[in-house]
Amino acid sequence: MVLPVEPEFEQALEELTTSLQPFLDANPQYRKALEVVQVPERVLQFRVVWEDDRGVPHVNRGFRVQYNSALGPYKGGLRLHHSVNLSILKFLGFEQTFKNALTGLSMGGGKGGSDFDPKGKSDNEIRRFCYAFMGELFRHIGQDTDVPAGDIGTGAREIGFLFGAYKKLRNEFTGMLTGKGLNWGGSFIRPEATGYGLIYYVEHMIAKACPEFSLDKPSTLVAISGSGNVSQFTALKVIELGATVLSLSDSKGSLISEKGYTKEFVQKIGQLKLKGGSLESLANETGYTYHAGLRPWTLLPTVHIALPGATQNEVSGEEAEALVKAGVRIVAEGSNMGCTAEAIDVFEASRKSGPGGIWYAPGKASNCGGVAVSGLEMAQNSQRLAWSTKDVDSKLKSIMAECYGICLSAGTKWSGEELTDDVLPSLLSGANVAGFIKVADAMKEHGDWW
Questions:
Q1: How many Cβ atoms sit within 10 Å of the Cβ of residue 74?
Q2: Which of 8, 185, 383, 409 is a plausible cystine mate for 91, CB 3.0–4.6 Å?
Q3: Residues 417, 352: contact at Cβ < 8 Å?
Q4: pLDDT for residue 297
Q5: How many angstroms separate the CA atoms of 348 and 190, rounded?
Q6: How many CA atoms lie within 13 A of 245 on its CB side?
Q7: Has residue 274 got a pLDDT over 90?
Q8: Whole-angstrom distance, CA of residue 114 vs CA of residue 321
Q9: What distance in Å separates the CA atoms of residue 333 and residue 22, rounded to the nearest whole number?
Q10: In whole angstroms, how far apart are CA 56 and each of 50, 62, 125, 134?
Q11: Given strand 244-250, what is the order of strands in its sheet?
Q12: What's the CA gap between 156 and 178, in Å, rounded?
């Protein structure tokens, strides 16, 4: 059978397969599990017809990839962006399966969305699209089946419209979406969770690899890409702890501040992004320099911590080399598969070179805080309770600490390297192997492979 060309999915599969080789060589029976787990359990594709404010009909493609339910209901976001296609959603659902496994919560993996782009649309147009989209999706989701969430282009407004449509169609009020409003079943810390969780993970990396660059020091320089939800709360947590944030970016360019972002300026960007604005409009702000068409990685002469937070493949091999020259010690992805294969090779080679090298954490581990708090939101919905901010944040910190520990242990055991005291274990190998083993073992017990 000739399979379609799916570059993003093939990249994710190749990364996992390469990382698993030492484990598979020692445990060849798991090769069959790898063969089975790479095929989604179900792929849904459907037509979405909606009407604009002039009464003109438009058609978009809707998707839901229900990838794996070995550990629980399918769980993963809905992406609304013009770039959405089946390859991207398969890669995201595949990664989500192992990411969710690393949280320790009962969640399978899935992903969905549409090539509809909310940018430039009115609230009424977005509402009509969401109702049309849910008009088909409602048949395939539910609190014990598949629990979608937000993602790029799907924020609080869109989640509200989607939830309202489902409630009308099914005549029931259930926790079948996460990222809900606090007044109707949402969780404290959910908007902040991916960014906060990323920093909680990075703090463990810093403590082991380079405590001299702890985040309570203003001299620690942090580069962040993106300016959406993940990047905003990543930046706010870094600023709260005391380190210096040098950059944010969007699809049009990067905004650099050599003296560091302030909490108030990040919040201003948050308001700008809610209105669909661009960082380009802040180009004349005192203390900030705008670079059109460039990502931040080549713009900073000195950086200690680099946190990609925008989208997939946003750090190239060339940009990775620039980060090595800038003195970066930690790279951790807030975005999914934020680094290209070439960039990862650069980072892993730097790690293997010994003291002073870059320690890289893949998104399936470092950014799992978002889906972890989605899982906690599901638990609160099941109990008909709302936990306090302090309780949710405490649970998030514990989940990220455990995830880091699992990745460190598995990376030490299964990287296939002869590790010395001077070389840190591969968190890339650790995350991939640990997530894979958990999913594969559950699948075997269910009779999915033998």
A1: 29
A2: 8
A3: yes
A4: 98
A5: 32
A6: 31
A7: no
A8: 35
A9: 24
A10: 8, 19, 11, 20
A11: 289-292, 253-256, 244-250, 221-224, 305-307, 330-332, 359-361
A12: 10
Q: Identify the band that residue 434 occupies on the pLDDT scale cut at 50, 70 and 90.
A: very high
Is residue 409 pLDDT above 80, yes or no? Answer: yes
Whether residue 1 is predicted with pLDDT greater than 80 in this model: the reply is no
* Residue 362: both structure tokens together: 């893949």
Q: What's the rounded mean pLDDT across residues 145-167?
A: 96
Q: Is the pTM of this model over 0.85?
A: yes
Task: Give the phi and the psi of residue 218 in degrees, each rounded to 5.
Answer: -60, -20
Q: Which helix (H) or strand (E) is 50 found in, with range?
A: strand 42-51
Q: Region 278-300: what's the mean pLDDT?
A: 96
Q: What length does the chain have?
A: 450
Q: Is 397 a residue of the active site? A: no
What are 3-24's pLDDT values in tens digits? Answer: 889 999 999 999 999 999 999 9
- Let me know: does 257 contact 288? Beta carbons within 8 Å: yes
Between vectors from CA 376 to CA 373 and to CA 378, what angle results, nearest 5°? 115
Q: CA-to-CA distance for 291 and 280, rounded, in angstroms?
A: 9
Considering the candidates 75, 111, 237, 364, report the single residue annotated as catalytic: 111
Contact 230, 223 (CB under 8 A): no
Token couple for 194 = 């991916």
Among residues 138, 83, 84, which one has the least CA distance to residue 111? 84
**10 Å Cβ neighbour count for 448?**
18
Assigned token pair, 215: 């985040």
| Local structure of 8: helix, strand or coil | helix
pLDDT band at 417 (very low <50, low <70, confident <90, very high): confident
**Contacts of 190 by beta carbon, 8 Å cutoff, 6+ apart:** 178, 179, 370, 373, 374, 377
Contact 80, 117 (CB under 8 A): yes
Query: What one-character DSSP code corresponds to residue 149?
Result: E
Query: 340 by DSSP, 3-state: which?
Result: coil
3-class DSSP state for residue 370? helix
**Burial of 32 from C-beta contacts in 10 A (0-12 / 13-18 / 19+):** middle
| Chain segment 292-338, per-residue pLDDT in tens | 999 999 999 999 999 999 999 999 999 999 999 999 999 999 999 99
User: Which of 61-65, 259-263, 413-417 is least confident?
Assistant: 413-417
